[in-house]
Amino acid sequence: QLHSDQDKGDGSLKYILSGDGAGTLFIIDEKTGDIHATRRIDREEKAFYTLRAQAINRRTLRPVEPESEFVIKIHDINDNEPTFPEEVYTASVPEMSVVGTSVVQVTATDADDPSYGNSARVIYSILQGQPYFSVEPETGIIRTALPNMNRENREQYQVVIQAKDMGGQMGGLSGTTTVNITLTDVNDNPPRFPQSTIHLRIPESSPVGTAIGSVKATDADTGQNAEVEYRIIDGDGTDMFDIVTQKDTQEGIITVRKPLDYETRRLYTLKVEAENTHVDPRFYYLGPFKDTTIVKISVEDVDEAPVFSRSSYLFEVHEDIELGTIIGTVMARDPDSASSPIRFSLDRHTDLDRIFNIHSGNGSIYTSKPLDREISQWHNLSVIAAEINNPKDTARVPVYVRILDVNDNAPQFAVFYDTFVCENARAGQLIQTISAVDKDDPLGGQKFFFSLAAVNPNFTVQDNEDNTARILTRRNGFSRHEISTYLLPVVISDNDYPIQSSTGTLTIRVCACDSRGNMQSCNAEALLLPAGLSTGALVAILLCIIILLVIVVLFGALKRQRKKEPLILSKEDIRDNIVSYNDEGGGEEDTQAFDIGTLRNPAAIEDKKLRRDIMPETLFVPRRTPSAPDNTDVRDFINQRLKEHDTDPSAPPYDSLATYAYEGNDSIAESLSSLESGTTEGDQNYDYLREWGPRFNKLAEMYGGGESDKDTS
């Protein structure tokens, strides 16, 4: 209430009010000065208001006193309950956690004045979630309250937390929130086989790699804590079967390792072990984290009639299976009480090449064309199941067929190699490094072996054991005038089963190189005209060539006019032709005088020369004789050539003499040279020459006669 000292109570004064909320929230009685609130005031909206009041003369409207200012302060009452920023919280904590493990902290706020009483003092309590969890009253931290909480028993918990003001006393206001707590998994459960003995059956005609069936150990954990590795640890069929862990389904797929024979053996027993791959050391005391089961496999013919019931199927099959082999079976059943029979078919839009087919009665999918992983590794099929009584009632299921690789491609050269060898190359010199490629993709990676198809006197191959090999020379020096190109067959083999190999041929050119081994020319030396010859020089060369051609033509015409005349005129006219050469040879070190390789390599002879004792009337095409192998003795070679001359129909019936200047292999009697005999003391005894046969009789008489003459003298 406002009151002026000038107010005598006669109603001559009038009170007016201005400032925050004047006229709306606050009104004043202009006669008495009483101030009233027009509605309920909320401190949380505004804690105080500043107003100004003044008394004026009602008639003159002039102030009778100066304007005065005053503040109206709103005292707080507990009219706001604590509130949480989130209605629902989500949190997680590992299972098997110790008591007191922190889960999450929740915080509530109170709009009341914290400096006035306990209106804003909040205390937390748990309304739902005991005895599993607890909450700290002052901080709102939620902690585990029970030890060894097992996710496999219960995974989800709902906890209700209450926040109450007034320090939690009676009459305080409260608010609640919900916390959904999930127990996360740890590896505290070992894998367990649901059965101690598992029976499987397989036809004896199943090829190697066929999947017989699967075993699966259940693990109550999830994620990587439930990952299991399968292996065969014992049994009488360890060499006949393999087991592969299927990562996506955590199953052990048992496959055929060797061909089966029903008449030989009908039953195999395997001991299969399943073990966790990620073991937590904190829970070793709960172990061991592995389990075993016995798998009995019966070898026999079994006709299955399966139906599909899963959302999708995955089949794996080797690419070398025979046509008509069943790769898998989809199963379907009629949920109706009538249990109508099911008819299966393939959606041909998903198998345009008609590689697969399906048995309409039992859902067996089999191959109708050969498989090739190198062409297509995956086939995505769609199987349609329809009731026979109601074909319109159909269902579809995707079937994924994965083609497994087998070694059916031979390795080949990775690229085409342009190989050359220098004429001045030395033995053991590297001339080429080769590598190979293979279309197959074995699990263990590619491994190739290199070797020569046959022993080669000029080159050899050295395997680097890293899928490459080196081509090395085996001798010093090559001549492109003798042989300009060598063909070297190289055998390349892989390491998979079954082993595949191929033979690639390297073409090695003989080239002229500089001192550093850089190639300069690979062609046999030919007369090349310099690029800068003048026109006059070209005309002179052309005239020389024309003159030579004219001389050759004239010489040929003269020879045609000459009468054919044999070299031997009659049987009585037998004479020896002596040709003298006054050239001194280079001795035994003169390897350029005669190339004995011509005798040992008949293929090097360009063409068979015609007889020169007469001029033949008709030119016969020379016959190419088969080449003699490198180890053929020269005596056999000479006998073969003699036989060919005797049976040659193109030669006239005249005797001819073919001389081969080759002394042959080392003599068992060593050297007969008089040069060497001079180094020995005393006389030589040549009686042993008579024991060598009739070919040495003349020689024995010459040497034996000399000794007799000497004795006589």
From TrEMBL:
Cellular localisation: Cell membrane
SUPFAM superfamilies xref list: Cadherin-like
Alphabetized GO MF terms: beta-catenin binding; cadherin binding; calcium ion binding
Native species: Atlantisia rogersi
Membrane topology: Single-pass type I membrane protein
Residue stretches making up the Cadherin domain: 4-84, 85-193, 194-308, 309-413, 413-527
Keyword Transmembrane helix tagged: yes
One Pfam family from the record: Cadherin
Transmembrane segments: 527-558
Assigned keywords, A-Z: Calcium, Cell adhesion, Cell membrane, Cleavage on pair of basic residues, Glycoprotein, Membrane, Metal-binding, Repeat, Signal, Transmembrane, Transmembrane helix
Single biological process term from Gene Ontology: calcium-dependent cell-cell adhesion via plasma membrane cell adhesion molecules
GO cellular component, one term: catenin complex
Designated gene of the protein: Cdh10
Name of the molecule in the record: CAD10 protein
